[in-house]
């Protein structure tokens, strides 16, 4: 094959294609990308011409990727990620100094390495200092000017004035089969964070409203302690979907818990490097 005859993929058209597939709607993609629906349709036609094959096919009232479209999705995500990282690196050369970032423990192992690694590669002159901790401690540090940005759970009782909601995630029960525990006729053993804790509150309120007796079987100050106790069979806990260790699964048979928002918390006047990190986090977590 003569590589000189190969077309170059239009990255903006590729972005519209990937965004539409991920959102399940190209009308929603147009809104997200601040384009008209007709403009996005034109981009998709252009992309199919460049690819030389159909990328989408009708399914009901919508469009889904063809086999070729699925292949392009995989390559396209990598192309856009590299493109965006290159632009971030060029635009961020002037940024320097220390950026103090805080994150709730649930996000430490699953989200932070990828997000912070991307920021560090794009902004090598910024010294990134990361604090992993519980919600209340992070909010207090941000209020006292000890952090420049924080990724935390929403606290409906004390909302942060400059908070951006990135996602609503479902809460779930984790641990032993509750039917076995409840069949004993004893209070349900719970593995809990020390108060105050949003998920401790969600667990106990749900059980109280359902008339299910409970007892604190294990209380910990760290997320690692929570998961260790659950894996040891000491009781049941409530968490979100982030950072669930292998061997621990969600269980059914207990009251529904609802959801909790993941938020970016910023000071009144965020710095440029904090805004840049916020953009990276938004790109990863916004649906």
From TrEMBL:
The source's superkingdom equals Bacteria
| Keywords, sorted A to Z | DNA-binding, Transcription, Transcription regulation
MF GO annotations: DNA binding; DNA-binding transcription factor activity
Q: Does the keyword Transcription apply?
A: yes
Q: Which PANTHER family does the record match to this protein?
A: HTH-TYPE TRANSCRIPTIONAL REGULATOR LRHA-RELATED (PTHR30579:SF7), TRANSCRIPTIONAL REGULATOR (PTHR30579)
Family named by the database record: Belongs to the LysR transcriptional regulatory family.
State the protein's name: LysR family transcriptional regulator
Q: Which organism is it from?
A: Gallaecimonas xiamenensis 3-C-1
Lineage, highest ranks first: Bacteria, Pseudomonadati, Pseudomonadota, Gammaproteobacteria, Enterobacterales
């Amino acid at each position: 094959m003569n590589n000189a005859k190969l077309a170059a993929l239009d990255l903006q058209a590729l972005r519209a294609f990937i965004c539409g597939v991920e959102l399940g709607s190209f009308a929603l993609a147009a809104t997200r990308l601040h384009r008209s629906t007709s403009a996005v349709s034109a981009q998709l036609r252009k992309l199919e011409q460049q690819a030389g094959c159909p990328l989408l096919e009708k399914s009901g009232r919508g469009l889904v990727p063809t086999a070729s479209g699925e292949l392009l999705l995989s390559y396209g995500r990598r192309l856009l990620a590299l493109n965006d990282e290159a632009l971030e690196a060029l635009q961020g050369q002037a940024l320097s100094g220390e950026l103090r970032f805080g994150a709730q423990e649930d996000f430490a192992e699953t989200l932070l390495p990828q997000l912070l690694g991307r920021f560090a590669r794009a902004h090598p002159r910024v010294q990134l200092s990361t604090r992993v901790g519980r919600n209340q401690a992070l909010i207090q540090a941000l209020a006292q000017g000890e952090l420049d940005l924080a990724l935390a759970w929403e606290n409906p009782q004390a909302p942060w004035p400059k908070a951006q909601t990135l996602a609503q995630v479902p809460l779930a029960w984790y641990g032993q089969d509750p039917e076995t525990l409840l069949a004993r006729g004893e209070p349900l053993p719970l593995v809990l964070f020390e108060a105050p804790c949003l998920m401790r509150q969600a667990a106990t309120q749900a059980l109280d409203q359902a008339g299910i007796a409970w007892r604190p079987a294990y209380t910990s100050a760290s997320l690692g302690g929570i998961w260790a106790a659950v894996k040891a069979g000491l009781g049941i806990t409530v968490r979100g979907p982030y950072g669930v260790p292998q061997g621990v699964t969600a269980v059914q048979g207990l009251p529904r818990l609802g959801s909790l928002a993941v938020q970016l918390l910023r000071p009144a006047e965020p710095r440029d490097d904090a805004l840049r990190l916020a953009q990276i986090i938004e790109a990863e977590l916004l649906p």
